[in-house]
Each structure stands twice: as structure tokens, then as C-alpha cells.
Amino acid sequence: MRTVQLQIPDDVDLRDYDFSMIVAAKLYEEGKLFSGQAAQIAGLSKRAFIEILGRYGVSIFSTSIEDLHSDFANA
Questions:
Q1: Structural domain boundaries of the chain?
Q2: Angstrom distance (rounded) from CA 53 to CA 45
């Protein structure tokens, strides 16, 4: 896994954990990471990551029409 270093202004009132979670949630939302990978970035178990995604405005359910059609076909 690679490491990325960010410089964040001191007046941004977020904990380091929140930054990790925001990045992990966004990459998960965009389909760049699986939930387990995103959970690892956030330093959480997969279950804990999924449980708190909503706090960051991310749904665990896909919103793509292709996924919906696939779900119907496989039901």
C-alpha cells in the first residue's frame, strides 16, 4: 500500500480519522475500492466501515442503473 502525505491548513477543524474516512468513503462510492479495502484505509473493520458510511453521505447500495438491472436479473 502506498502512503500519501497531505498538507491541511490548521484552521480546518477535522480529525485525522475524518480525513482517512472521507477519502476511503469517496473512493468506495466511486467504485475505486471494495469495502474491505476502504475499511483498511480508514483503519476500521469492514463491518464498522459499512455501518458509518451514512455519516459521510455515502450509501452502501449502488445507484447505477446497470447494477439495478443486474440485481433484477439475478434475483
A1: 16-74
A2: 12
25 backbone dihedrals φ, ψ, rounded to 5°: -65, -40
d(CA 29, CA 34): 9
Please write the tens of the pLDDT for every residue from 51-74. 999 898 898 876 667 766 666 777
| CA distances in angstroms from 59 to 9, 17, 40, listed in the order given | 29, 19, 18
| Residue 28 to residues 4, 7, 12, Cα–Cα distance (Å) | 17, 23, 23
- Does the pTM exceed 0.85? no
Q: Which three cell numbers stand for residue 33?
A: 475500492
